[in-house]
Queue: 4 jobs
Job 1
Amino acid sequence: MDLVMANYEVAPELLADRVPPGTALDFDDGKLFVSLVGFMFLDTRVLGIPVPFHVNFEEVNLRFYVKRETAEETRRGVCFVKEIVPRFAIAKVADLVYGEPYECWKMSHTRTEKEVSYSWRKGDCANRFKVEIDRDLGIPARGSHGEFIIEHYWGYTRRGPNRTDEYKVEHPEWELFSVKNVELDVDFGRTYGEKFAFLSDQKPASVLLAKGSEIAVYKGAKMV
């Protein structure tokens, strides 16, 4: 489950109306990011139950970063602008269980020893994200940009004007790899909304590949 991530610096105004109640935007060294993330779900189970013919599939999402302060800790989490998968049943179940903004598109991927790519299409809107794998950077250092991007263990979903659901994600620490010869051909405006169209012409602040692992996503609970 390798994750390819293109990370774009954006202004807070872009995301202000998307921040779930009870959370705040999370900045990395004073900078705010959205990330385009492509990866494979493998041996997927929803509430512990595999969905026949829907256990291995691609996902590409656009996400941003938030945090929640509790009495015990700062919970660093992610919110999703949109999550794209190739299976209607998965999109429907995920929407019902987690309230996440899933859509079903035609998708494909490649994975070799040297490269990883994801493609997603709906009608005449076709997108592609490809990287060549470079050096093994290991587990990112505490406080580094890489650690900020990949080490989030909470998800937050806005379920209405006054309701936020919180769910926990568990996985081991992930190794990072540098990448080269990045190909990004994404129509952000048609895929994620006109407010995000400018990203099609913006160079990512960073592009990373993480060597993923098994993850556990727990059912959401109402926070506020």
Job 2
Amino acid sequence: MYLAWERHNTIPHYSIRASYYSEQLDDFIYKEIFDLGDRPADFIDEYDNGSVVFDEELLLAVELAGEKNAYSLLEEMLFPFFSREARAFHLKYPSRKKITVTPLSAEEKEKIDQQLHIFDLRRLYYLRYSAVDQRHLHKMHKKLCRPLIDTCRDEKEFYFIAQESQLPIRELKTYVFAIFDLQKHFTQSFAAHMPQGLPENEIEEMFIEEICQLNRQKEFFKVHKDRSSLHRHLQRYVVMFFDFFFPEMSYERDFIHQFTNSHRRFRWPDSKQKIEPEEYVELFGLTKEKLYKLSKSELTRLYRKRAKTLHPDQGGEHGRFILLTEAYNQLIYRLRGRTD
């Protein structure tokens, strides 16, 4: 279930929709659940303390559509239409939802392969990794695709609209360049990282060609009556491309961005504190002479025993737990160089 809108004479008209499978079309399509009109706030009542209640007919319609936790769904869906006080209240006291992350099942993996278009994958890839270069698309974790399983094309597009709203304005044109994989039309070595260095007129030609080709693909927009006109869900990319500009080239910034993207797991090493041998007595309860005679397994057992009492979760001090761990690492390093 999702919030959708269409413009009627430049005024957005909102509705709640739900995806369902159509055997006739052999695809997911949507049905209207509730018409919110152009003022969704009219279906929200607020108390003085900032808490809200929703219109009874709206709640009932969402529940009848099969949603068990209708209030939480509406709270999330209609949050942008809350007053400032109500938004502050709900940010302070958010609804607690249990989130369980599980591995993808074989069925989910199959659905991802069947239901998601390559254009969906490119968008997910950029939105997650900010990667202009799409050549490593196959490395994307498929868990990112889970929200799009068993959804109609309309719901998928509104999902991407919400995600794209978080992009900085300076990235919008670069985003379009990446998701339409325009780099494949250029042989320059920097095409995948600095599109602003490519001929603008050639990029425009390739973009128009790619977006028109996507518009004609029946496997992407299965319900699209007039393919001679650009589908409304693709029109926003024309705006992003022609109304915005690539960021100005900065070789230093581009190098840092490229480096961090290619070393996503990179972390600056933690500063290590040197533990003096005299402190071992307080941390481990044994003199340094006795500690030096311990085997690796004996030292590890002692460390685990002391860690249980010093760990912050057990009421211990965070600082002393860190010192204990560092002292243990120092002793282990000393043991490696010891020849018995």
Job 3
Amino acid sequence: MLYWLTEFTPELPLFNVFRYITFRTGGALITAVLFVFLFGPKVIRSLRIRQGKGQPIRKDGPERHLLQKQGTPTMGGLMILSGVTVAVLLWGNLQNTFVWVVLLLTLVYGAVGLYDDYLKVTRQSAEGFRGRIKIVIEAVAALVATAVIVHASQGPLATSLTIPFFKDTLINLGWLFIPFGAFIIVGAGNAVNLTDGLDGLAIVPVMIAAATFGFISYLVGNALFADYLQIHFVQGTGELAVICGALVGAGLGFLWFNAPPALIFMGDTGSLALGGALGTIAVATKHELVLAIVGGLFVLEAASVIVQVTSFRLFGKRVFRMAPLHHHFEQKGWPESTVVIRFWIIAVVLALAGLATLKLR
């Protein structure tokens, strides 16, 4: 919204500052932080009253969770999504197609997660939305988002897959790029969802990934920097840095209340939406494979569940003491804080490795 003030630059040169993506990214970050700080306590009180017993705790999970986390309200993702939406609408260029695609996909995934959380709370059961229906809705939204991204992009790059470390390598998938992009978005959403199991575990890696992709978006959307780094230029994607700034800011505000012991859980409302946002940004910036590096922690968590389920169904044996992976280390005796902080460290290292792909080509 504030971007429109640039139209008055000839009369008021000061408004020219709103042309700079870096300035508006910082503004979005600060706005999102303040919004969550200011309204977070009211949201938590309201959810605690409305939910009563709070989020149901899995009976097949670690026993400690049944004692220490019972009664904690969920749907904290509403705080994050509200902060992100306000910040993006205020600081983003609303004429940019990529901004609307990412924002709307994020809100759709947030709505799916909200309904899932609602069913869990009202039924007081860890089982929420039927899995198949949930995946179908996510897939349809992701297919539409990818199709719009392809339409908004230019030339053969629109349907091509770029390969990290190789500056000239493009694999043109044609129309198959749309289901491929949808797979990335759906996978990212559910991978973050699986990671959200301990206080502060998911939100910090999400912020790290968002900050990383904010930097990538800015470079990919700038012709000069893209040419210097020999990465593929995608016009208009620089504006996604504003969304990434809002994600980081809202995440910081939420972490204040989600730090151990958590006053609120983000629930599927937040985890699905945040993962979907990261996946959509990766597809738009043509860095889908880099997301697998930067978000490697989410990939490991999702892979641990797949391996565990597959091994048990085929051989009747479990590879891990408990899945997802963070519960495995809890069962080995690691304190929750140890698991969380060590996973944060892994997320930082993987983000640095992802950034290294920008130069090593």
Job 4
Amino acid sequence: MMKAITWLASVTVGVAALSSSAFATTPAGWSTDLDKAFEKAKAEKKSVLVEFTGSDWCPPCIAMRKNVFSKKEFVDAASKKYILVELDFPKGDKALAEKNEPFAKKYKIEGFPTVILFNSEGKEFTRFFASEFPKTEDFLKHIDEALVKKDLD
């Protein structure tokens, strides 16, 4: 009997580990509430960076999260000028995907991972596929240049 319980416990732990990695939580330093992010951006005089992702099915999204978005050096640097928002469309969490669907429609998202940069008033000033900049330093350079261009317009 004891063997069966031990085996069951190990299977249960294995399944829990699998499911928690499949639905990775939002990286530290990122919000999931776009409306609150715009309020915060106004208050802090920052821009808003929104990443539209498929965290559990989109290989470039998974790579960007692992190599850039979850990195402390990225979050620390980007947070100086941007409020970071992740809008996720996971296959394994239908409720979350449905909650974010109106934003995908509103902003005409055609692929993942799409990043849109907004000013604090909610006006888009650039968009691009995150996977064009697969390294932290390249990504930061790109969003810094986008801010400079925005201020020149």
